[in-house]
Specification:
By secondary structure, this protein is mainly α. It has 2 helices and no strands. The mean pLDDT is 79.
Length: 72
């Protein structure tokens, strides 16, 4: 992703990618664990992602039809 912070440390880069995935899925407990690891490595976690809500999956993806109810 182009707006992710760039780093020379491969572990920090991996933690930032992992954190972005957890934020996208709304797994705040995992985000907190990754934030702790980032802080141990001297990196301040991105603050903007901490309050993001998970994406809603109530609608089918674009280009696909919802599955109809099966009747016997």
């Amino acid at each position: 992703m182009p707006d992710e912070p760039q780093t020379e440390d491969p572990m920090v880069a991996a933690l930032l990618r992992e954190r972005a995935g957890y934020v996208g899925r709304g797994m705040q407990d995992r985000v907190a664990q990754v934030d702790e690891q980032l802080q141990l490595r001297g990196v301040e976690p991105p603050a903007a992602d901490k309050t993001d809500a998970p994406a809603s999956r109530s609608a089918p993806p674009k280009g696909r039809r919802a599955r109809g109810t099966e009747q016997a």
